[in-house]
């Protein structure tokens, strides 16, 4: 199957995470809730009014009492993924018309746990869709890295830990930040090496709002902290890093990202609120996405072996980032939205053979319509022009990076 092809069936994986491995005490505040504690935690969660509200909003066609009985009948995180999250994702895709396609599954070894490193478009769906694809292929869902800045209520923390998430501690002092990085990396090494668990983590903190995807150097340094008895490269190889390239035909949050750029341009000290993240989550889940494509790539361990020994540490980190970036960039699926945005942004018709004039006009109307959704700001014509150009950059940058990576 070609890189752009849609796979009819995913390879049948059989690897399941080993839940019988005791979690070391130093990781117990950040790891997913163990299955032995699953029912107790779920019993508490279903009583939370906030949880009831979000479930009722997400699944309006079901009575909460019915859903509550289903949730209380679950015994493990795997059951939660298979019996709740998989149908939920299928429902979301059906309602939003999302077509979820894949390529490169043959690059994964069915017996190997991976650390999947991806570009990051959507707060919730990037990892949720990946877990759905893994489950659909007969593999266990991956554990998901999630920043504690999103965990604004205790019930959200409980929910994500029941949903196989591990916590990334952010917004700490300098000493605490290093300690948290060591703890996080240690847990990730433990999960891959001891629990046989696959993991997901974004290539940088937060979403890349302009879609110019680049791996954050501090992330790569953190990943190597987990085994400091080994060299930097050998420690990274323990994680079996496998990049995944995620491509969205349409990003429902495009105008919200452009709004954040606008607010920041007007006030450098502007900071988004927790409500902004909740709005982004809801918009990403319920909004129109068209086709979303996941391209699985090879584990980078062989490429890490090609990095010369004795290289300066900063150059080592740079090489690793470049390897991941190249894998992501060259495996984008390029949509008409990318070609059109690139031609509009650069005022040319270089890719005019990839779309019709009617499709170009429809995309221009789509962008204007997205800007019209902006709330809380009185937009001037200059503001609209600024947001319009930011959105063009979001859609054109994947094509620009793809062209550079595939020269």
Q: How large is the count of helical segments? A: 16
Report low-confidence residues grouped into runs of 5 or more.
1-14
CATH third-tier fold name of the largest domain: Glycerol-3-phosphate (1)-acyltransferase
Mean pLDDT: 92
Number of strands: 7
**Cα-to-Cα separation, first versus last residue:** 22 Å
What Rg is obtained from the alpha carbons, in whole angstroms?
Answer: 21 Å
The CATH architecture of the largest domain can be given as: 3-Layer(aba) Sandwich
Question: Strand order within the widest sheet?
Answer: 1-7-6-2-5-3-4
Strand content: 5-15%
- What is the string of helix and strand elements? HHHHEEHEHEHEHHEHHEHHHHH
Count of distinct structural domains: 2
Main sheet: strands, sense, barrel: 7 strands, mixed
| Morphology | globular
Proportion of residues in helical segments? 40-55%
In a few lines, what is going on in this structure?
This protein has helices spanning 38-45, 49-58, 64-72, 77-96, 125-136, 154-162, 174-193, 217-224, 232-237, 254-266, 274-286, 301-305, 313-330, 336-345, 357-372, 381-405; strands at residues 99-103, 115-118, 143-147, 165-168, 199-202, 241-248, 291-296. By secondary structure, the chain is of the alpha/beta class. The protein starts with 37 loop residues before the first helix and ends with a helix.
């Amino acid at each position: 199957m070609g890189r752009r092809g849609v796979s009819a069936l995913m390879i049948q994986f059989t690897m399941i995470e080993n839940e019988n491995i005791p979690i070391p005490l130093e990781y117990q505040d950040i790891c997913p809730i163990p299955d032995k504690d699953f029912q107790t935690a779920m019993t508490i969660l279903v009583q939370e009014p906030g949880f009831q509200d979000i479930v009722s909003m997400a699944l309006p066609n079901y009575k909460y009492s019915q859903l509550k009985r289903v949730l209380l009948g679950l015994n493990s995180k795997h059951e939660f993924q298979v019996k709740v999250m998989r149908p939920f994702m299928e429902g979301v895709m059906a309602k939003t018309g999302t077509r979820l396609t894949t390529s490169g599954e043959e690059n994964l070894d069915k017996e190997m746990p991976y650390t999947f490193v991806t570009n990051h478009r959507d707060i919730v769906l990037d990892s949720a869709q990946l877990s759905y694809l893994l489950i659909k292929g007969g593999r266990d869902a991956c554990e998901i890295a999630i920043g504690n800045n999103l965990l604004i209520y205790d019930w959200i923390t409980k929910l994500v830990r029941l949903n196989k998430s591990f916590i990334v501690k952010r917004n700490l002092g300098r000493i605490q930040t290093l300690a948290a990085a060591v703890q996080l990396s240690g847990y990730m090494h433990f999960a891959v090496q001891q629990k046989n668990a696959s993991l997901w983590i974004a290539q940088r903190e937060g979403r890349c709002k302009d879609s110019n995807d680049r791996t954050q150097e501090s992330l790569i340094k953190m990943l190597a902290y987990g085994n400091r008895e080994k060299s930097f490269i050998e420690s990274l190889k323990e994680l079996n890093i496998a990049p995944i390239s995620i491509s969205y035909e349409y990003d429902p949050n495009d105008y919200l990202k452009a709004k954040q750029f606008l607010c920041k341009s007007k006030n450098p000290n502007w900071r988004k609120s927790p409500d902004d993240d909740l709005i982004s989550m809801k918009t990403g889940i319920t909004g129109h996405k068209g086709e979303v494509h996941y391209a699985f790539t090879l584990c980078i361990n062989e490429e890490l072996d090609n990095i010369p020994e004795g290289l300066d540490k900063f150059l080592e980190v740079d090489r690793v980032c470049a390897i991941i970036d190249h894998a992501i960039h060259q495996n984008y699926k390029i949509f008409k939205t990318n070609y059109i945005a690139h031609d509009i942004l650069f005022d040319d018709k270089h890719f005019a053979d990839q779309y019709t004039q009617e499709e170009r006009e429809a995309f221009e109307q789509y962008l204007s319509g997205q800007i019209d959704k902006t709330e809380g700001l009185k937009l001037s014509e200059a503001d609209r022009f600024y947001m319009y150009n930011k959105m063009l950059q979001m859609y054109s940058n994947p094509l620009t990076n793809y062209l550079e990576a595939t020269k």
